[in-house]
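Memo to structure team: turn this sequence into structure tokens by end of day. - J.P.
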Amino acid sequence: MPDQLAVSALSLLAALTWGAGDFSGGIAARRADIFGVVAFAHGAGLVVMLALARLWHEPWPTAHEFLWASAAGLSNGVAIAAFYRALAISKMGITAPIAAVITAMLPVIVGSAREGLPRSFQLAGFALAMIAIWMIAKPEGGDGRPRGIGLAVLAGLGFSGYLVLIRYGGSSSAFMPVALARFSSLLLMFIIILRNRRPWLPAPGPMWIAITAGIFDAIGGGFFLLAAQRGRLDVAAVLSSLYPASTVLLARIVLKEELTAIQKIGITGALIAVPLIAAK
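Reply from structure team:
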């Protein structure tokens, strides 16, 4: 398969699995402690990635890769906790696109610094993204902005950092760096849980949903890293950032979420902005 086609296919697979994982995680976070949900999700992801790394006989990362992957895990741990909380308290169709647009930006900046400045289509994508975020966050009926917007922005920043850091932590393998990232984020969750000193263990139902979310999330991370290794970081990142499409679709089908007309336009604009940013 030609590299460009492979990069696109792998990135879109990452988007699909990440979107399904986010939907599952948001559902679990509505019924259990957020840090317990993330702990089970990333614990499951750690097990899956270690199994895949062993199956593919991947080497143990170098000290340099270990540090990058561990830092990626810390960034992702904060991001996923914020994102699951945003999905739990607000409409998934609003918070997911906001996080996605912000997720795409730092990898584009880093990729441009390493491989050339963005073209006109990418600049148009940035402008459209900013307008889309404003439309999505527009107050509903004068009641103030929708809940979870700040958490969605924080999640986007954390995910954006994760995509850059995990790329540098995955120069020689794909599954082991994701496993290391899951391990460091899992440690972070347990530190927070111990400091909070409150019940965190999910009931069986939310626990299994969290585990499902973690498996989808980890597999998506593997797809993304494989894509970034074969092509440009910014292209892989922005195509992977289409993950809200599956999240929004699942929320519409399963939860029957309804959006205002202007928010629908904003969501459409956000989803259009991502491939524009990737245009070459």
